[in-house]
Design brief:
Order of helices and strands: HHHHHHHHHEHEEHEE
Largest sheet: 5 strands, mixed
Structural class: alpha+beta
Helix content: over 70%
Shape: elongated
Strand order of the largest sheet: 1-2-3-5-4
Number of helices: 11
Oligomer: single chain
Radius of gyration: 38 Å
Strand content: 5-15%
Length: 403
Amino acid sequence: MRSFRTLRRALLRARRDTGFVAAGIPLHLALASQWVWGVTIVVKANAWAVVPIPFALFLVGVPALTVVQRHRYRALLGVDVPRLTPTLEPRWPKRALRWLSSAQTWRQVGYHLLLGPLLAAMELLVLAAWAAAVAGATVFGYASALPVDQAFFCTVGGVVLLCSAPWLAGATARTEARLAPALLGPSRNERLRQRVEHLAESRTDLIEAVDSERRRIERDLHDGTQQRLVSLAVNLGLARATLTDLPDDARTVIDEAHREAKEAIAELNDLVRGLHPAVLEDRGLDAALSGLAARVPLPVGLRVDIGERAAPVVESVAYFVVSEALTNVTKHARATRAEVTVERIGKVLRVNVTDDGSGGADASAGSGLNGLAKRVGSVDGTFRVSSPTGGPTTLTAELPCEL
């Protein structure tokens, strides 16, 4: 049974390869024969001035024939020849010139005009081998018309060809399958460029999705959990003010619960602002950083000069950098003052945070600065830290305004 399945797969594969080869003959000869026919007419008529006309007609048919060949490879052989990058010029003269000057176009021309006839010859050879194999293998059906010795040799040759014809068809199909993507599809450099563009778009979509999810969490916390905590704190405050006849132990419990509720609200506010403050989306980076600087328990000089707003994701990263940098200054730097400068230089948003603390910060030591560097790198930005021992410490992030 296993041998039967193997034989059946081999026969199906031979039929597929032979059908693929047979379908390629008219396609490979179509444009080449048109070009030869046109040039022959021009030569016989001695009308050399119209020589470009057959070639122009040939060029017009190249894209359509490429599409048909791509469909042939996909439908009959299961090989997907990548599509070429379309020309994006809006006007047809420029689009035509760009198409004519493209290396992709001339690879297609070489495939159809030069390689096509050679492939057609190989395909005709495969069909001839099949025809000779069938004729030889069935020679005893008409052996009476041949001498006995010729019938014997024809039979042997037919059987040999019948065994080798599937291999010949498969080899031809595999050869064409290797050549077509290289000539009818984009080159290796073009495929790499398309891959890089696709990855950049995917990365941008992912960043925007994460940023959108962060904003949703911020809204849910602000409108849901935070409001419940505020209501709880208000109720506890009312209970403490109105229920004056409670035992001291009960009042102590209410006072402690009221204090914990207010601390939870403060922590939740800090968490929400760290995720994505609403003022950043509504009023921009200047207003958001002003509120952030006002909450820091040390003097912060702030200068924001950005003019046109950057992309929302970039503004979010810039805010996060300043927020984390000021948090580190407050907790670790033993500084008395900090300076924050945000400015737009061309298409780059530059963020500087400087403090007069003790210095010694190292972004490569696995600290929070390493997380800042990764956050900046997620939008193709650059992150630098200058922090000699004894200070000052300067954090610089340069972010592209548009992704």
